[in-house]
User: What shape does this take?
Amino acid sequence: EAQLVASGGGLVQPGGSLRLSCTTSGITFENYPMNWARQAPGKGLEWVSAIGASGGTTYYPDSMKGRFTISRDNTKNTLYLQMNSLKSEDTAVYYCANCWHPSQCMRGQGTQVTVSS
Assistant: This one.
């Protein structure tokens, strides 16, 4: 059974940074593209970023280009999301999943990110 657990969230001030991690088990991590998605209170799921299986291809929506960086370590079965210049509108629960787009597969356990002064 696949397990994906996001961690690294917390409370950060506007302009601050966080690095999220997603540890996986029960899947052959290196075979899957991975994505990050988020859900803010009262809003739908938003695609944050995606990365190909080898790490050579990445995707970001325009609103996150230059602020967020997705990466992966296939030797550690772990996905990362470096988030810089955080804004209050980045407050959400962040999830990882083993597919390119979040609509294509189930997401794992999320981590709360709160951006507030």
